[in-house]
Specification:
heterodimer, A: mainly alpha, Helix Hairpins, 8 helices, 90% helix, B: mainly beta, OB fold (Dihydrolipoamide Acetyltransferase, E2P), nine-stranded mixed β-sheet
């Protein structure tokens, strides 16, 4: 067992499990087949029984129909007699066919078939024909009941029934027998499945355990050995327990460990030799590291160490030369660095000064820019005011022109009023002359009336009536006089009012004329003002444009100065950086010098 | 009795209508040089020259103002000798004829001038009658009517 390979071990283990399972499956299959067969036989028996039942029922039907016909003579009852006979024959033939496997049953049924065929085709026919021949003869059923045909047919049917019953009994017996066998088979099947399953399970466990032992044991040994070797124990070995692949691996592992051990021993010897040489070299190198470059290398030979010694010797010579040069160069570098530092400081100071100057210039430029902006705003305001003034002046001019027109109209109206007043005055004069005439007439009338009164008085009684007339005339004259006087007064008042009006109108029109003159003068002055203001607007525009250009220029100057400032700042920064670098260079040069001075170059 | 009412200054006076010949408007008078102040001038009545006495002047007032109702009244002057002469009297504000009842007349009581006679009161005030025959003083009468003297 131990000498088998791992592949074979696995094949054997799993193969046996598969074989057991296959065996179990075949047995179970056989049992299932038997069970199926038993079921098929049961069904066969059932079919035979069914056919027998049908034969019985059909023959019974034929018997009943025939008997009914015999009793009643009604042809309707035997309408299906032929069909029933055919069915009977079919069912009997089927039963015979089904029992072909059982000779005894087959024989029995064949006999029954012969009997039933004869009964249906011959005996029943005869009975029906006889009854038909008898027709409606009274007592026909009794005659037939006494006939030999009926008795013969009854005997045949009875014997056939007996045969059928025997066959049914035989089938039932067979059915019981088969059922018992099927129950046996069923229990067998159960036992087989349970036992086989348990056996397979146990066997599988056993095989798995054995396989595990056979493979994992040597593997664990090998792993432990490898772990020890990995941990540095070169003496670690494993025990070879099996002849399989793992056994081979264990053997090879042991060989490898042995070789490792041998190699380690050889290497140690060489290392000791080498260390001695290296120590002597290291001694010289350590002295050199301490600054003493005067040490001599004593190791020689063709080996790597010898060559190393020669190389070191050459290197030391070169180093000595180099150090001498470095010392000289260090002094020069220090001097130069100091000079550079001084000039960098100076430059930095200049840069800072320049930055300050540019900042001042920038602030000045900004001030200029802001001033220009303010000025620009002011100029814009002034332009707006000038525009407004222009429009207002032109409006005022229009108003003045309208006023002038109105004044002219007023002068014309005044003239017309004056003319009308003159006409009025003339009319009043005319009225006055008329009044004078009226006054004169009234006066004379008065005198006339007085004289009339005197004459009437002189006439005495005869002139009494005339005296009354004279008095009336005188009163009329007096009234006329008074009215005329009133009119005259009114006329005088009117005339004085008219003359006062004329004077007032004259004064008024004179004032209007003067006003018109003044308005014209003002209009002219406004025109000249407007012209000047209109001339002012383009000048303002020119100034505005100049201002804007100036603002833009100031802005550009500001931007340029900002850039310059940035550049200066950057220059200062870089100068500072340079200064820093130079300082570092100085320090470095100092360090170099001091470092180099620690080396002793001459023995 | 009917009288012709006129004014001297502000006072009303009446000339008895029986002595009035006619009333004339104020005519253009011809001046009489060296005549007394009370003589306004000489008027021409249908070709007959007629002396005109200013009643205001003769009463010692300012001369009559030449108003539209200032008239020349032609009166019958009966000289003391009985001769009747037409005489022009310039009177201011000749208003018209007024009837004065005889029983209303009463003596004025004051004998300031010889030609001022009785007075009568009415609603408008008092009216004093003027006696034409007593109007001219002797000297003036002699000047105006020299024939009168001669005839005597």
């Amino acid at each position: 067992m131990n000498n088998l390979s791992i592949k074979n071990k696995l094949y054997i283990g799993f193969g046996s499990i598969v074989a057991i399972i296959l065996l179990l499956l075949i047995t179970a299959y056989n049992n299932f087949a038997s069970l199926t067969d038993a079921n098929r036989w049961d069904r066969h028996t059932m079919e035979v029984l069914l056919q027998l039942d049908r034969i019985n029922s059909v023959s019974l039907q034929i018997q009943v129909d025939t008997r009914g016909y015999i009793l009643t003579g009604s042809e309707a009852l035997i309408g299906t007699e032929r069909e029933n006979a055919e069915q009977l024959k079919q069912h009997v033939a089927k039963a015979v066919q089904l029992t072909a496997d059982n000779p005894q049953q087959n024989e029995r049924l064949k006999r029954a078939q012969a009997l039933l065929t004869t009964w249906a085709d011959v005996n029943i026919r005869r009975q029906i024909e006889k009854r038909r021949a008898l027709g409606d003869t009274k007592g026909a059923p009794e005659i037939l009941a006494q006939s030999s045909e009926l008795k013969e047919a009854g005997a045949i049917v009875a014997s056939a029934r007996e045969l059928l019953d025997q066959a049914a009994e035989e089938e039932r017996r067979l059915l019981a027998e088969r059922s018992a066998k099927a129950v046996d088979l069923h229990s067998n099947q159960n036992n087989l499945l349970l036992g086989g399953g348990a056996a397979v399970f146990v066997l599988s466990l056993l095989i798995a355990y054995t396989l595990g032992r056979a493979i994992l044991g040597p593997l664990a040994n090998l792993t432990a050995g490898l772990a020890r070797l990995g941990g540095g124990d070169l003496g670690a070995r494993t025990v070879v327990t099996s002849g399989d692949e793992l056994g081979k691996v264990s053997e090879d592992f042991n060989k490898m460990a042995q070789q490792l051990q041998d190699a380690m021993l050889r290497e140690q010897a060489q290392t000791n030799d080498l260390r001695a040489k290296v120590d002597s070299l290291l001694d010289v190198v350590a002295r050199a590291a301490g600054g003493d470059m005067t040490g001599k290398i004593s190791v020689g030979g063709d080996g790597a160490i010898g060559q190393l010694g020669d190389g070191l010797q050459r290197m030391f010579d070169n180093l000595r030369q180099l150090l001498t040069n470095v010392q000289k160069a260090g002094i020069q570098v220090t001097t130069s660095a100091t000079e550079i530092a001084a000039s960098a400081k100076q430059q930095e100071a200049t840069g800072v000064e320049q930055a300050q100057t540019s900042v001042e210039v920038l602030s000045t430029t900004k001030e200029i820019s802001s001033n220009t902006s303010q000025l620009l705003k002011t100029m814009e305001d002034a332009t707006a005011v000038a525009d407004y003034t222009t429009s207002a002046t032109s409006e005022a001019q229009g108003n003045l022109r309208r006023m002038d027109q109105t004044m002219q109209n007023m002068v014309n109206a005044t003239d017309s009023i004056n003319a009308k007043l003159a006409a009025l005055s003339e009319k009043a004069s005319n009225i006055n002359s008329v009044l004078t005439t009226i006054t004169k007439v009234a006066d004379q009338t008065n005198i006339l009336s007085l004289n009339a009164a005197i004459e009437a008085e002189k006439a005495g009684e005869a002139g009494r009536g005339f005296s009354v007339v004279a008095t009336e005339i005188r009163r009329l004259a007096d009234q006329t006089s008074v009215s005329t006087w009133d009119i005259e007064q009114m006329l005088k008042e009117m005339q004085s009012a008219v003359s006062a009006s004329v004077m007032g109108m004259d004064k008024f029109s004179e004032e209007i004329r003067r006003s018109v003159g003044e308005v014209r003068q003002v209009t002219d002055q406004l025109s000249s003002v407007m012209d000047q203001v209109q001339k002012l607007a383009p000048q303002f525009d020119a100034v505005l444009q100049g201002m804007q250009a100036q603002a833009v220029g100031a802005q550009q100057i500001t931007e340029t100065m900002m850039q310059l400032n940035d550049a200066t700042q950057q220059t200062v920064e870089s100068l500072k950086a340079t200064s820093e670098a130079v300082h570092q260079l100085q320090y470095a040069a100092g360090d170099l010098q001091s470092s180099v001075s620690t080396f002793a170059v001459n023995a | 009795m009917k009288v012709l009412v006129f004014h001297i200054g502000t006072d009303r006076y009446g000339l008895p209508l029986r002595q009035v010949q006619r009333v004339l408007p104020l005519l253009e008078l011809k001046g009489i040089p060296l005549a007394p102040d009370s003589v306004a001038g000489l008027m021409n009545l249908h070709g007959t020259p007629l002396p005109v006495i200013d009643l205001s002047r003769i009463s010692g007032k300012a001369p009559s103002r030449q108003h539209y109702d200032t008239r020349i009244v032609v009166a019958d002057y009966t000289a003391p000798g009985g001769a009747v002469h037409a005489l022009g009297l310039m009177a201011e504000r000749v208003q018209g004829v007024q009837d004065v009842a005889t029983q209303d007349l009463a003596p004025s009581g004051v004998q300031a001038a010889p030609f001022l006679g009785q007075v009568a009161g009415d609603a408008q005030g008092m009216v004093q009658l003027v006696e034409v025959n007593e109007l001219l003083p002797a000297e003036l009468r002699a000047r105006l009517f020299p024939s009168e003297v001669a005839t005597r």
